[in-house]
Amino acid sequence: MDSIRHILPAHLGNMMDYSLVTTSVTPTSCFLLFLVVFILCRLITKPKYPPGPMALPVIGNYKLLTDPKIHEACARLSEKYGPVVTVQFGPSKTVVLNSIETVVEAMVKRRADFAGRPPVPSGMTLSEGGKDILMSQYTPSLKVHRKIVSAALRKYIKGPFLQTILEKSMGQFIKLFEETKGNPFIPHEYIDLALFNIICGVCFQKVYKFDDPKFKHYLDIDNQFVAEFGMGLIEDLYPILAKVWQSQRYKKVVSLFRELLHYIHEELEAHKQDFDEGNIRDFADCLLMARKEAENEEDVEILSQLTDVHLRQTLSDTFTAAFDTTRFTIQWALLYMADHQDVQRKVQAELDRVVGRDRLPRVDDRPSLPYTEATLFEVMRIASVAPLGMPHMTMVDSSVGGYTVPKGTTVIINHWALHNDPRHWKEPSKLDPERFLNSDGTLARKPESFLPFSAGLRVCLGESTAKPELVIILALILHQFNIKLPPGVKADYSPECTGFIGYTANRYKADDIKITRLLKV
Ligand code: HEM
């Protein structure tokens, strides 16, 4: 048993009563020995994470996780711990990046290290075993999948497609706004309809009427999904639960998503029936065309990424990633415009100068509308609809900001912190589109700490679609209407966010705010 003494540190060895050890070479003593060695090994090999607040074992930083403004709370931690902070959600460590410098270091310079996604149970279930883009690991297959989708999206936004869809969906929206005849109203559902129609138009050439039960049904499904998923799922913190006991919320989230998938599946099947390669109508057709080309070229690798499950998952990604981000951005934009008449007037003056009163703004007006675009970017900065983006995961042991980040660690980009960093933005809480303009009024280079679409290998695939779409939607609304708050109503900027990492969006409260529409003469 002397050997036991030798493998223990001196102080522990001395503390042990040798006679006790020798007299009880029993399973108990063997177990104790194993425990001591195990704890020592864990202490020696324990990965060193960046600094952060003390966390309870197993439970972690529970208060932080349940903070409705978790992005702001994480940003505040930087004041004490620096821009790279470790927090603990449940038993797992999560590293939060609160500055553009550390985000660029991780996501751009060490992009391959940080390109994974945490394999949480909800992600695996909703993506039908990792067959989507949003929640899948960064594998060679995902790389191929991303390439196909971005080529299809690029093809789609080139030419007249986007303009046609915008005209179809915004026409109805403008009529609905007109019908309010200058009375105060809540614009949420109208904005939701417009953006729902744009996504349905992009994906399936579908445009719904405001009172269409299908639109109401799927909007309701999506709203419930955002609210429930947004609250976070206990199974994602303690994955074993997904196997042994699933919460009501988990079951509800899965069943809501299945309903959305069912809708997408039906549309895809209909597209397969009347697919005509000489007439590519929409994004679904672009994906079917990519599959047809791969079949013709007998490209097995590409075909393996274009099964029916991949296609419906890609379309559902487009729905979930595109619909909520874009509708919340426009909702915020209207609130800011209602409360910032000076900015609104400047946008309208630009529109009158460039577009005039005889026609509506078009996608090809965008290069001539720098102030409108700067206003949209400023709203995206100040509202940060996806404040914590999508969680990443390190695929190998890596480092950022001088700290080690072990393989398998969840890493979060705090977009809100980047967009409110006082080192980069003077008076960050003030709406000021000029930040995005040169002194001659032209659009400036992207400010360093502006990253709504993220960066690196998982950069948003919809950036090039979302920007023209959102600029023209804002232009169309402000070209036709003055947005105002009713007399005596103060803008309420408190976000309606549920606090889940990466899937919540900021939204003002529908009941608190009404916007008066005045038809321009
Ligand atoms: C205001 C509009 C939008 C914002 C702010 C936004 C933001 C983001 C962010 C922050 C991510 C996570 C990136 C990361 O993992 O670091 C993301 C991912 C993604 N977005 Fe967007 N997005 C917008 C619109 C769209 C649109 C219109 C589409 C599709 C047409 C789209 C498709 C995607 C997809 C497919 C991903 C997953 C990329 C991957 O995991 O590899 N997004 N987006």
Write the layout of secondary structure elements.
Blueprint: H1 2-7, H2 10-15, H3 18-23, H4 27-45, H5 62-65, H6 70-81, E1 84-89, E2 92-97, H7 100-109, H8 121-126, H9 140-157, H10 161-179, E3 184-185, H11 188-204, H12 213-230, H13 234-237, H14 240-244, H15 248-273, H16 283-296, H17 300-304, H18 308-339, H19 341-354, H20 370-383, E4 392-393, E5 398-400, E6 403-405, E7 410-413, H21 415-419, H22 463-480, E8 481-484, E9 515-519
Parallel strand pairs: 2-7
Antiparallel strand pairs: 1-2, 3-9, 4-7, 5-6, 8-9
Helix pairs in contact: 9-16, 10-11, 10-22, 11-18, 12-15, 15-18, 18-20, 18-22
The structure holds protoporphyrin IX containing FE.
- In CATH terms, what is the fold-level topology of the largest domain? Cytochrome p450
CA-based gyration radius: 26 Å
CATH superfamily of the largest domain: Cytochrome P450
Shape: globular
EC number: 1.14.14.16
Organism: Mizuhopecten yessoensis
Cofactor: heme
InterPro entries: Cyt_P450, Cyt_P450_CS, Cyt_P450_E_grp-I, Cyt_P450_sf
How does this model look, in words?
The chain is α+β, with helices and mostly antiparallel strands. It has 2 domains: 44 residues, no CATH class; 456 residues, Cytochrome P450 (Cytochrome p450), CATH 1.10.630. Helix content is 53%, strand content 7%. It has a 4-stranded mixed beta sheet with strand order 1-2-7-4. The radius of gyration is 26 Å and the shape is globular. The N and C termini lie far apart (96 Å). The relative contact order is 0.14. Bound molecules: protoporphyrin IX containing FE.
